[in-house]
Amino acid sequence: MTTFDPARRKLLGRALAFGALTMLTGCNFDDLQHPDLADKFLRLMSGWNNEVQAALFNPHTLAPTFKASEITRPPRFNAFYDITRAPQVDLAKWRLELGGLIGDKRAWRIDQLRALPQESQITRLICVEGWRVIGQWSGVPLRHFLRAVGADTRARYVAFKCADGYYTSIDMESALHPQTILALDFLGAPLTAPFGAPVRLRVPTKLGFKNPKSIMAMEVTNRWTGGYWEKQGYNWFSGS
Ligand SMILES: Nc1nc2c(c(=O)[nH]1)N[C@H]1C(S)=C(S)[C@@H](COP(=O)(O)O)O[C@H]1N2
Ligand SMILES: [Mo]
């Protein structure tokens, strides 16, 4: 966070105070006699947290970038299944399906995506499991793509569906962030199946699980669609 306006500062103050409160009250969560109540409380906090994070999130703040020498080798795979079960997408048949508040909903082939201007980034992917890797991804900035297809950028969310059944969604501000890209390449070569072929989202301002791999469909919407891990309690906004 580089800039703070007074409203943000006030919210941050409240967030910190609330954090302290939950630290005090949260220490006995494990042996609470009403786990469903604890669950409800956590959900409530998480919802409130989305609002606070969105307010604190400066759309112009950039995620850190790194030198080529800092790239993690080999990269680290993660998904809700083992690497051997990663989906194999047939490139010839693959299309990026578009839905929702988009002017031109024609599906995109991979060569059409490759014909758009590409940008490269060396950024960090942080997984909630407690590890981080630095990688080089290149592809089409999502904001350029959204403009190219005539998306309504006043909508609240951009939602993604993947070849393995995974799904997630992000707020429009993050979708329009200059570092948010539809990545096609990793280390200068097309993404491999486990790492999200043929297209994955790279949003370095968010945690790993907000970076869907092997995307099949994208929807611009005002409807809340949540996500795979979000449904299991992870915070939806998950800035990093
Ligand atoms: N399609 C799909 N995308 C996914 C996942 C998944 O299980 N399926 N896991 C997410 C999680 S939890 C992380 S940390 C990153 C891991 O990306 P990587 O394998 O490139 O490190 O992918 C995210 N995107
Ligand atoms: Mo993750």
Characterization of this structure:
With 240 residues, the protein is of the alpha+beta class. It folds into two domains: 2-56, no CATH class; 68-232, Sulfite Oxidase, Chain A, domain 2. The protein is 24% helix and 22% strand. Strands 2, 3, 6, 7 and 8 form a five-stranded antiparallel β-sheet that branches. It has a four-stranded mixed β-sheet with strand order 1-9-4-5. Strand 6 and strand 7 (189-190) form a beta hairpin. Helix 1 (6-25) packs antiparallel against helix 2. The radius of gyration is 19 Å and the shape is globular. The N and C termini lie close together (11 Å). The model is unreliable at 17-32 (pLDDT under 50). The site of the ligand Nc1nc2c(c(=O)[nH]1)N[C@H]1C(S)=C(S)[C@@H](COP(=O)(O)O)O[C@H]1N2 has 17 residues, from strand 2. The ligand Nc1nc2c(c(=O)[nH]1)N[C@H]1C(S)=C(S)[C@@H](COP(=O)(O)O)O[C@H]1N2 binds at residues 76-80, 125, 127, 162, 164, 166, 195, 208-209, 211-214.
Features:
single chain; 240 residues; alpha+beta; Sulfite Oxidase, Chain A, domain 2; 2 domains; five-stranded antiparallel beta sheet; four-stranded mixed beta sheet; 5 helices; binds the ligand Nc1nc2c(c(=O)[nH]1)N[C@H]1C(S)=C(S)[C@@H](COP(=O)(O)O)O[C@H]1N2; binds molybdenum atom
Q: What is the number of E strands?
A: 9
Q: Bin the strand percentage.
A: 15-25%
Count of spatially separate domains: 2
Oligomer type: single chain
- Examine the secondary-structure arrangement and name the CATH architecture of the largest domain: Alpha-Beta Complex
Low-confidence stretches: 17-32
Order of helices and strands: HHEHEEHEEHEEEE
Number of helices: 5
